[in-house]
Amino acid sequence: ETQCTGISARVGSQLSAPLGSLSLCHVPAGMWGSMDGCRGSTTAATELLLTRRIARYGDFLILNDGLWHSAEEKLRRLRSLLHQVNRSGTTLGQVIEEGSVGLLWRETTPQHFEGELTGAYRDAHANWYHSKGSHCAPVVQPERDSEASSLYEQLSTAGLKVVPLWEMMVSQWDMHLEQRTPHTATRGVDCTHWCSPSGVLEAWVDATLLAMSELPGCAAAPLVTPG
């Protein structure tokens, strides 16, 4: 069951802005812990943003699944998302067909803990830190999972544009926080989060803007519609 009763009050007023300006809002969907957000899937939260008209013509919704999900769970969620996008009569499918709201799926970026095989999340790194290692390191098998690659291609073909970050970031093992901040100096080696400012974050922005510009319909529309 999705519990997002406060979503309209929390973000609705932030999604409108004067013409020529930009508002960014974060909706923490799928957060089952104490964080104030939607206790449901990313897809369910997106459906609410669209059906309640919180997201309006000319807005962009950039979707993502949390890094902490297992590889198997990520694949299950991608399959479900593809089913929603392809199925006739769904809100996501209708919005993609109309081009009224720009929808993007952002790939989850890899981790680079020492001894990591693929860069995918593992239970051993549940707190994003590593107390045993001393530094981040390249992953042993940097290839993208074949089923995930196939699902991303199918999503793009179905009209849900994917922001490709995995292959761009899998080689950037030395751009994590490691123990470069007072916080990580006491918590452990952080091979999950990235340094800021850095070329990594600039690349994220460039890739996102490029994906937005390639969307049909929305790309030429103003970011907001005057009320």
Task: Please give the alpha-carbon distance between the first and last residues.
Answer: 33 Å
* Derived structural class: alpha/beta
The helix count comes to 8
Shape: globular
Give the helix level as a range of percent: 25-40%
Describe the structure.
There is one protein chain. This protein is α/β, with parallel strands linked by helices. It contains 8 helices and 6 strands. The longest helix has 16 residues, at about 70-85. The radius of gyration is 18 Å and the shape is globular. It starts with 6 loop residues before the first helix and ends in a 14-residue tail after the last helix.
Key structural traits:
227 residues; alpha/beta; three-stranded parallel sheet; three-stranded antiparallel sheet; 8 helices; 34% helix; disordered N terminus; disordered C terminus
Give a concise summary.
Helix content is 34%, strand content 10%. The chain contains eight helices and six strands, in the order H-H-E-H-H-E-E-H-E-H-E-H-E-H. The two termini are 33 Å apart.
Describe the protein's topology.
Elements: H1 7-11, H2 42-51, E1 60-63, H3 71-86, H4 91-98, E2 102-106, E3 129-130, H5 146-158, E4 161-163, H6 166-169, E5 176-178, H7 182-187, E6 189-194, H8 199-213
Parallel strand pairs: 1-2, 2-4
Antiparallel strand pairs: 3-6, 5-6
Helix pairs in contact: 3-5
